[in-house]
Amino acid sequence: ELKVEQNPLFLSMQEGKNYTIYCNYSTTSDRLYWYRQDPGKSLESLFVLLSNGAVKQEGRLMASLDTKARLSTLHITAAVHDLSATYFCAVEHTGTASKLTFGTGTRLQVTL
Amino acid sequence: GAGVSQSPRYKVAKRGQDVALRCDPISGHVSLFWYQQALGQGPEFLTYFQNEAQLDKSGLPSDRFFAERPEGSVSTLKIQRTQQEDSAVYLCASSQPGTFMNTEAFFGQGTRLTVV
């Protein structure tokens, strides 16, 4: 059974600081996704990571994937208030065309 | 349409009532998924369709839950005799498998079901 663990569950950050969210998963997978969810909203796709060593960056967010360690990280650089949201990693089950197992989410709160 | 559309956005049901939740996937998307997201949790897989075929229903929590996609496009998730533990946001997602790069799932805005 594929299990996905995310930590921390809650993160309070000061504006301008850097931090990293970690996502560990239990079995091999074809790909890993990072999503953002604002309160009462659906999931917004941030990154799709397809292979070992993949690194993608968008603005202040950078995601990486280490398939050997079964670990992905989402690094936040110089946080701003607009980044406050819940972030989920999701791992695709091999050969199932997008069936996902999600982590429990990291609720990020950026304070002034 | 441009994205995955779900209706209704909000549904309040009395315990024991039957409900039906609708999902309109992105036009042409072959795969359709239903997920259940309880408050403060990540989404959990319920069921998966490829066209009209329901290939995986391992996540449905009980036989009160039933999903269909009779013409391979619109899907309905039906919950019979709703219970309070069914209160959650029900998310629908669609994707277009076939090319390696294009299997990303796109999510609708969800239906928030509250059972009272």
Structural class call of chain B reads mainly beta
* Average pLDDT metric of chain B: 92
Q: Tally the beta strands of chain A.
A: 11
CATH class of chain B: Mainly Beta
Mean pLDDT of chain A: 91
Total domain count of chain B: 1
The best one-word shape of chain B is: globular
The fraction of residues in strands of chain A falls at over 45%
Distance between the termini of chain A: 41 Å
**Element order of chain B: H for helix, E for strand:** EEEEEEEEEEE
Order of helices and strands of chain A: EEEEEEEEEEE
Give the number of helices of chain B: 0
- Percent of residues of chain B in helical segments? under 10%
Shape of chain A: globular
Spatial gap, N to C terminus of chain B: 33 Å
Question: How many strand elements of chain B?
Answer: 11
Give your account of this protein's structure.
Chain A has strands spanning 4-7, 10-14, 19-25, 32-37, 43-49, 55-58, 61-66, 71-76, 85-92, 100-102, 106-111. With 112 residues, chain A is mainly beta. Chain A starts with a strand and ends with a strand. The model of chain A has no long low-confidence stretch (mean pLDDT 91). Chain B is mainly β. Chain B has one domain (5-115): Immunoglobulins (Immunoglobulin-like), CATH 2.60.40.10. Chain B contains no helices and eleven strands. Chain B has strands at residues 5-7, 10-13, 19-24, 31-37, 44-50, 53-56, 65-68, 75-79, 88-95, 106-107, 111-115. In chain B, strand 4 and strand 5 (44-50) form a beta hairpin. Chain B is globular. At the A-B interface, strand 5, strand 9 and strand 10 of A face strand 4, strand 5, strand 9 and strand 10 of B.
